[in-house]
Amino acid sequence: MGLILDTSALVALERARAPLTEVLAPLSEEEVAVPAIVVAELLAGVRLARDARRAARRRSKVDAVLALAPVIDFSVEIAEIWADLFAALERQGSRIPANDLAVAATAAFLGFTILVGPQDEEHFRRIEGVTVETLKQ
């Protein structure tokens, strides 16, 4: 079993001010991966930073994540799972954000648990067959 890191968990870790390697140390027993869509969301945060100093700090955290965990591309196989999950949720009248659906499809493909931020991301829990763990800080 492993962990897929959701953007909400990584943003919470970024705000923790501790070195990322130290914060992720308790997770070292687990295989950890990051979906490509999460990298895109993190990079959007870099681009939207209020100033160059904050952008550089955010970018260094993104680079630290990329050094610690492999990025999982959105493959055809994951797209198939995304479509299945989308259709199931649509039939239930229970859509979730498309980016989060890509995170869930990646987790389902790998058989990993999704690690979300301390505020939780309840919509992930509506997806059958996906497990979610909330980051403890």
How is this fold's topology laid out?
Blueprint: E1 2-5, H1 7-15, H2 20-24, E2 31-35, H3 36-47, H4 52-68, E3 71-72, H5 76-92, H6 98-110, E4 113-116, E5 132-134
Parallel strand pairs: 1-2, 1-4, 2-3, 4-5
Helix pairs in contact: 3-4, 5-6
Can you describe this structure in just a few lines?
With about 140 residues, the chain is an alpha/beta fold. About 55% of the residues lie in helices and about 15% in strands.
Could you characterize what this model shows?
It is a single chain. The chain is α/β, with parallel strands linked by helices and 137 residues long. It has a single domain, classed as 3-Layer(aba) Sandwich (Rossmann fold), CATH 3.40.50.1010. Helices cover 53% and strands 13% of the residues. It has six helices and five strands; from the N terminus they run βααβααβααββ. It has helices at 7-15, 20-24, 36-47, 52-68, 76-92, 98-110, and strands at 2-5, 31-35, 71-72, 113-116, 132-134. A five-stranded parallel beta sheet has the order 3-2-1-4-5, sandwiched between helices. The longest helix is centred in the middle third of the chain and has 17 residues, at 52-68. 29% of the residues are buried.
